[in-house]
Every structure is written in C-alpha cells, then in structure tokens.
Design goal:
With 558 residues, the chain is α/β, with parallel strands linked by helices. Helix content is 37%, strand content 15%. The two termini are 25 Å apart. This is Membrane dipeptidase (Peptidase family M19). InterPro entries: Metal_Hydrolase.
C-alpha cells in the first residue's frame, strides 16, 4: 500500500508571507522560478541548502495528492511575533524584500506582509485567513479536493484525488484574539471560544502544542530552544531563547481545557521541565488520553538514569543573561556499515527516553521529523589539521589521545538549568561515545555524494531507538507496539526546515519508504534488534508511513 500519512505538515505557511489578495495559492507549489529575481542575494544571506529546502514548497496540496498522501494533520499556525522580528533583524534581508516588492519574488515574499505580521495582535485572525485562502477544490485541477475530516463517516480511503485533513494547533497563541491580553483567565476564555469557532466550521482539532518558539505562551509553560539555525546564520534570535520554567498553573488549566474538547496535548516545543511536570500533572489528575509529539527527533538518551543522562554529554556550559548556552555532544548508539556512526541531536527540544515512555504508555503518537538538524545530522568543516568549525569540540580520551566530536548548541533558562540540577555540571563523562567529527569531514572530503545516505541513516537511527525503547519497556510486545502503533512520520514539511537529502519534499516519500524497506532489516540485525513476529518489513513500512497515523486519527473521531 503506497498511501501516506503525516502528523505535522503545513498547507498554508508559505502563503502567510505572501502579498495579500491571494497572489499565491496554497494549492500550487512555490518554486525557485517564483523567487528567481532575488535568488542570488538569498544565496548570500542563507545557506544554499536552505534555499532549495526551505523557501520552495515541500507539501502544498497538489504535491501531496500527486505523492500519494491520503491523510495529513495540518497545523493552525500564526507566525510568532518574535520569529518575525528575528527575520526582520537582518537588514540585508529586509532590503532585499523592499528591492523586489513589485516583482513575482515580492509577491511570494512580501515586505508589506512582514510589516503587517510584526504588528499583528490578533493571531487567530491569521488562522481564519489561512482557512479562507485554502479552497476545498484545486483551482488548477478541479478534480482534486480537500476534505476536512470531522467524523468517521466522511472517511473514504479509496476516493481518488482527495486529501483528508484534520488539524492541530502549533502554539496555543494561534488561538488568541489579543496577544496583548495578560490575564490568564481571559486568555483561556478566548481560546475556548476560538476552539468552538473552528469546530463550527466542521474542522476537527486533534492535537495542540501549548507553546512554540518564542515567549508568547509563557503564561502556560516554558518553551525549548528551537532556532539554532537562525543563530548560526547571524539573525538576532535572543528573544527566542527560553527564560521561564516549567508548566504554570494556567498551563494546567489549559491542559484541562484541551481535555474537555478531546484535543490531545502535543509536547513538541515544551521545555524539558514543562514536559516532566505535565506528566506528573496528568498522573495526579488521572488523565489517560493519548500524548502526542507531532514532529520530533529523539535524543537517544534518558534525561537521567543510573547508567547515563543529559549531563554525561554536556561539552560546555556558559551563563548568558537569563540563559545557559550549553554545547551537547551527539550520542552514538547504533552502527551502520561503511559510514561514520550517526549521532543523535540531544538538545532539549528533542525527546528523552522518559518522554518516549510517556507517549508509549498513553497509547499516543510520535511523529519523526524529516528535518536533518532535528534528527541529528550536523554539517562540519575541517579548517586545518587540528582546526574545525565551531560545532566541533576536542576531548582527550584515555589511551587514545585527542578526539574531535560533533556538538549541538542548546539554550536552557537559568530557572530550568537549576531546577533540573544542572548547575554543577562539568564536562560530561560519556563524550567519548559521541559522533566523530574527523570521520564525517573525511567522508565529505572524499566523496560528497556520501552525504545523502548518511542523512538517511539518521532517519533509521530514530526508528532503531524507538524499537530499542519498546524492547526495554515490554520486550517483543513493546517492539511490535512501537512499530505498529506509536511511530509515524511527522515531517514538518513547509515549516522552516532543512529536509533530509533523501526526502526533500512529499514527492520523495515513496523513495524514503522503499529505502527503509530495503535497509531497515539489516540495520536491526546489525544492532541486535528484530522485527516483531509474523510481520514482514513491507507491512511494518505500511504501518509506519501510513496506517499508524491513520488509525490514531480515526480513533479520535466519532
């Protein structure tokens, strides 16, 4: 079966930055041709990979239907004000938008629209506008259509040229009519009313993130740091760094509100302390509904255990204003033939083993992101014999000498750094088990075509760790549950992502699935794991790429 599901991809996000008046259609893919006037300058401002992978459409409805997608979860999303400010902080970028504002480039990336978003206080109005500009039928091919699923009776799996859609909310600020309102009870009432407005349109919200990437949702919980790519590209992202702590009382009331409306809490973007406090709150209240992480990567490690923890992989930690800048090594857990072993991104926005356990035990859904940075791929450069790019750190390994390891940069709030007992953290004891920078840079130098399969191995790495955790939890039964119920793909296509080279858009998902079928059994065997009994790899792939998500969504409909 070559139908596909995705627990988190955007159908209208690219169009939020386009000129008002429907100058672009969400149905039609944005291409490099649309951006050609300003493309050379964009290449100077952003990395080349970002142009190919970020600004062009990855999941417009026409591409999704052509690519075999049958059901997707569409986030209702209003761009975070501080995100737009961060983008606007780079003068050369805004000057580019001004220069080409009367061209096709200026229609797709509109200077005037950026200014409007900077001053928008009614986030929910952006969501409402998105729903208006997404017609049910493809204006270019009227035989194609979208159906917003609100009941099981609407589901017709074999209906041709049809994309079935349910919704999530990416950042609860997206349901707020007044971002300047500060009273928590008033904010919650506003959210409650706007949920009902969405429902009255026949649109089902299956899951919701309590927070996103800035501090607009600080009344409810602290966010995890998500924008290291912008930091590396020299945008001013300081306002996107977390400064608060945990889950607030208002956040607990928000969880109750979501439960009242049969909306699953999506833990993506929550800080680690907020996530751990959420699990405690759910237990104290006897909440049994599924937990979701719609578009995540795995850290590959527990946050804290007798054998290892986050502390063991910290390379350095420096106080900066209300945060700690923490460099974290990339844990290596699984082996692949003829390639440097891929490391995990153990930054706190990703899921620790404790998070995966909470999702598993709640019979939830875990969508694996297809952003190369999220799932662990890190570019590195050798600048000299013993000199590398800033994301490489040197350590001394007993009886082995000097080793250069890959690292990621994370930010934790001062509050959580102390609350999570990290304040006395020194250089971690397990850094020698992290991804080897010299192996990666040597591979790239030798043959740059080796990069895409290496990124594919990062995807396999995620699934392997899910299988390992399932085995740890319930043995063979746990492996079966993880592969045939819990795991799915949550690509984050058309978000601000660098998609893995093996799957840069939804048109390539079948190739990803085919490669998974071909290589996953050997990866399991090489790492002393196994498929569940009586399941072929083809059926496992059908579950992972389609049926797990489909069945989860249908279970939430009446």
């Amino acid at each position: 079966m070559n139908y596909f599901f995705d627990s988190h991809l955007h159908l209208t996000l690219k169009n939020q930055f386009s000129k008002n008046g429907n100058s672009t259609s969400p149905w039609k893919a944005i291409t490099k041709e649309d951006l050609k006037e300003g493309l050379p300058k964009l290449l100077e401002i952003f990395a080349l990979g970002l142009i190919d992978k970020m600004f062009g459409s990855q999941s417009s409805p026409d591409l999704l239907i052509q690519g075999g997608y049958k059901m997707v979860v569409m986030p209702l999303f209003a761009p975070d004000v501080d995100l737009v400010k961060a983008l606007s902080s780079k003068k050369i970028f805004m000057d580019l938008l001004k220069k080409y504002k009367n061209s096709r480039f200026g229609e797709v990336l509109s200077y005037e629209r950026y200014q409007q978003l900077l001053g928008e206080v009614n986030a929910f109005s952006i969501v409402e506008n998105d729903l208006k500009i997404l017609p049910a039928k493809d204006p270019f091919h009227p035989d194609r259509k979208i159906v917003f699923l609100n009941s099981k009776s609407q589901w017709k799996e074999n209906e041709p040229d049809t994309l079935f859609v349910v919704c999530s909310v990416e950042g609860i600020h997206s349901l707020r009519s007044n971002l300047q309102e500060s009273h928590a009870d008033v904010i919650l009432q506003d959210i409650r009313q706007n949920i009902q407005k969405i429902k009255s349109q026949g649109i089902n919200i299956v899951m919701a993130n309590l927070t996103h990437i800035d501090r607009n949702n600080r009344d409810f919980c602290n966010q995890a740091y998500a924008m290291d790519g912008m930091r590396v590209s020299n945008f001013d992202e300081k306002d996107l760094r977390p400064v608060d702590s945990g889950l607030t009382d208002a956040g607990k009331n928000l969880v109750d509100l979501l439960e009242e409306n049969q909306i699953c809490t999506d833990i993506k973007h929550m800080s680690p302390q907020a996530r751990f406090q959420l699990y405690s709150y759910r237990q104290s209240k006897g909440i049994k509904s599924p937990l979701v992480s719609s578009h995540s990567g795995l850290c590959g490690i527990p946050f804290e255990s007798a054998q290892e923890g986050f502390k063991d992989y910290v390379y350095s930690s420096v106080k900066e204003d209300k945060c700690y800048r923490v460099r974290v090594g990339k844990p290596v857990k699984y082996k692949f033939d003829n390639f440097p072993s891929p490391g995990f991104n153990a930054s706190t926005i990703n899921l620790f083993d404790e998070d995966v356990k909470a999702i598993y035990e709640s019979n939830g859904l875990l969508g694996i992101s297809l952003d190369e940075r999220v799932i662990g791929y890190t570019k590195a450069r050798r600048l000299g014999p013993d000199h590398f790019s800033a994301n490489v750190g040197g350590i001394t390994v007993k009886n082995q000498g000097r080793k250069y390891i890959l690292t990621d940069t994370d930010f934790l709030s001062d509050h959580e750094y102390h609350d999570l007992n990290l304040f006395n953290t020194h250089r971690g004891q397990l850094l020698h088990q992290c991804a080897d920078a010299e192996e990666l840079t040597e591979m790239i130098r030798r043959n740059s075509t080796d990069i895409p399969p290496h990124q594919f191995h990062h995807f396999l790495n995620q699934i392997l760790h899910g299988v390992k955790l399932g085995k740890d939890l319930e043995g063979a039964k746990g492996i079966e549950k993880m592969l045939t119920q819990i795991l799915c793909v949550g690509s984050d296509f058309d978000g601000l992502i660098e998609a893995i080279d093996w799957c840069t858009s939804c048109m390539h998902t079948k190739k990803l699935k085919d490669r998974f079928i071909k290589q996953f059994p050997k990866a399991l065997m090489d790492n002393h794991l196994f498929l569940p009994q009586n399941w072929t790899i083809e059926r496992i792939a059908d579950r992972l790429f389609y049926e797990n998500g489909r069945d989860f969504v249908l279970s939430r409909l009446k």
